Amino acid sequence: MVLEVLESAMNLKCTIGNTHGKRLDVLAGSKVMILQELNEPFLNMAVSKAATLLGAYDVNIVDNLAWDQDYMGRVFSFMADAIFVATMTHMCVQRFANQSTVPVVCMRSRTHASIQSLATMMAIIEEYGCLNGLNLAYFGPPHPVLNSYLLLCPILGINLKFMCCCKNNPVSPLLYKASENMTAKSHTALKACSEKEEVLKDATVIIAGPSNVNKINEFKLAIDDIDKQKRNHWIFFHTGPRGKEVDDKLFFHENSKTFVAFENFHYIAAALMANVMKDYKF
Fold first, then answer.
1. Which of 55, 88, 147, 259 could be joined to 175 by an S-S link, Cβ 3.0–4.6 Å?
2. Structural fold of domain 114-260
């Protein structure tokens, strides 16, 4: 499904490069619910934009939901044709989805950041034409998007190195073990690093994690750090929110594709929406 969604999203973007004021009838008359435990503005707008583009209507609910009430998925199913969820948990979303009679898509949880990670992968394909054999370096504090990369990289043939801690404070991402098993089967490489130079060496794609005010110096990244390790073409993404760990020179560098990835949010959301609701591919 991953490759199908990426291909569908890219086809949609090629067809409609500017979605402002555009409206298709793929999901005409459908209702899409955006259900958030915490407000995720970028994801909220991406899903809302995607719904509008495909001819659907959306409703946004931000509330501290009682996910342990198993009937909630069933009740909300009466009122929506698809439900996009952002929550601080993940297992509760699975229970919610099991009770639902309409498609449930996890936009963001403590474990996954599906839309953002897929939007970044889409931007990488747009740059290089393929993913197989690329070296991806993730540099920053642990984040749900890292867990998503841990699963996506072996599926897509990408080698992954990451640094999310220092030697004195070892941290293992939630899905590291699962990624190890997948990597062994896909014959890709996976490595946890504790030094900046090690994670950046031979990296084709560099992704900075979100800002952490307590670790600004530990995860400070600049053009010079990349140039020391890399002579070939590289691209950079920032997960957001951005802090002082990445300066303007890198954030706005010609090799930075951060805004391309953010633009791709609503194309990925549209491809997911069309796929789960109508089994439709662009």
1. 147
2. Rossmann fold (3.40.50)
Give the model confidence (pLDDT) of 224-262 as tens digits.
998 887 667 899 999 998 888 899 999 999 999 999 999
DSSP string, the chain: -HHHHHHHHHHHHHH-S--TT---STTTT-EEEEEESS--HHHHHHHHHHHHHTT-EEEEEE----TT-TTHHHHHHTT-SEEEEE-S-SHHHHHHHHH-SS-EEEEE-SS--HHHHHHHHHHHHHHHS--TT-EEEEESS--HHHHHHHHHHHHHT-EEEEE-S-TTS----TTHHHHHHHHHHHT--EEE-SSHHHHHTT-SEEEE----GGGTTTT-B-HHHHHHH--S--EEEE-SS--TTB-HHHHTSTTB-HHHHHHHHHHHHHHHHHHHHH----
pLDDT tens track for 175-214: 889 999 999 999 999 999 988 899 999 999 999 988 777 7
pTM of the model: 0.94
Superfamily of the domain at 1-113+265-278: Aspartate/ornithine carbamoyltransferase (3.40.50.1370)
